[in-house]
Amino acid sequence: MAAQKSTIREMAKLAGVSPACVSMILNKRNLQRFSEETVKKVRQIAASCQYKPKHLRLQGGVVRIICPSVMNPYYSTLIQSIEQEAIERGLRTTICTTYWDKDIEKALLDEAVASLETIGVIFAMIPQQPELAKKASKKIPVVAVGDRLDDLGFDTVEINNFHGGEVIGKHLIELGHKRAAYISTALNEEHSARVRRCQGLQAAYSARGMTEAVRIFSAEIPSYIELNTTSIEYDTGYQLTLKCMNEYQEATALVVVNDMVAYGVLDALADLGLRIPEDVSVCAFDNIFPSRFSGIQLTTVEHSIQDRGRSAFRLISERLKNPEFPSQTGGINRVEHMVQLVVRKTTGPAKF
Q: Fewer Cβ atoms within 10 Å of its own Cβ: the N or the C terminal residue of the chain?
């Protein structure tokens, strides 16, 4: 058996003593209470299981951060906030990228579970294979930062992306926009946040009786292109905007899946000679740092990136405090941060 994969409870059963006895012997507390034979037996079982006492595991352990890429400032900001919390708690992190490749995601999870060094996993997104993450969470603490979904079976730090889409939709409707387009990278069940943002936008328009107002323009992006094209989100936004404005000229507002894609949208509109927001309004999601620059001033949904990163590491820390993990019965932790629309200069009244 691998380290951390045999619990104190399991070793106690093998040794014929209580879990409390095993914990005290392995942590060298009150050894005078036990016979030399019992101490030797417990230590032999722990050695055969490659088990390390909790304080030794944490001292040399690493929390693995799994994310799609680090090109988008959303992820780099999230990662930095996780690392800030880790440093304050005296723990280390390491970063692993998947580029939305499910085989890589599975391999990273398998490595984490088997590793003697890894003491926890934080997903910077909802895993593409949540069932594998749930299985891994029975061995080591797992936290995912992402969309508010039905119970995934492990700890999550969430935002309500559906509500974020609704907030943007209501904002645009109040400005008189009767035709809108949703610009996005791949839309499927493996990217729930993107889908939920779109659904929220559609729901806002449907509530006003405009059921056909929102058209979707999306692009599937293979993982090898994600890996080899550093400007992929910008490029996708640019190309989809050209397509949208050619096929749906009635649209007076473009709602974009995230800020990085929106930068490509803004440049495409400018190259088409369209004024923002006089001719076309643009909204996005995330509120990453460049969106506030004077030359951009993007209207976008605030997603509390830094706060969510810190929350994720705090959940890991709470799990690591439990000496009986993964045998705890404390249930699943779900932390939700609220979304808020930040209105800047890329939205204005519809021109018709």
A: C
Question: In the prediction, which pLDDT does 22 show?
Answer: 86
Whole-number Cα distances in Å, 108 to 1, 92, 164: 19, 17, 31
Which CATH code is given to the segment(s) 61-158+305-336? 3.40.50.2300
Q: Domain map of the chain by residue range?
A: 8-51, 61-158+305-336, 161-300
pLDDT value for 104: 96
Model confidence over 296-310: pLDDT tens digits?
999 999 999 999 999
> Hey, which residues does 222 pair with through a beta bridge?
none
Could you give the C-alpha distances from 47 to 11, 22, 38, 41, 66, in angstroms and in order?
11, 13, 14, 10, 30
**Single-letter residue type at 210:** M
Give percent of the chain above pLDDT 70: 93
Q: Indicate the CATH number of 161-300 among 3.40.50.2300, 3.30.1330.10, 3.20.20.70, 3.40.50.150.
A: 3.40.50.2300
What tens digit of pLDDT does each residue of 102-131 get? 999 999 999 999 887 899 999 999 999 999
CA 253, 257, 259 angle in degrees (round to 5)? Answer: 90
Take residue 124 and report the two structure tokens written for it. Answer: 């910077």
- The answer to whether the 61-158+305-336 and 161-300 domains have the same CATH topology is yes
What separation in angstroms does the CA of 114 have from each of 6, 47, 111, 140, 185? Answer: 12, 16, 5, 10, 33
Q: Structure pTM?
A: 0.81
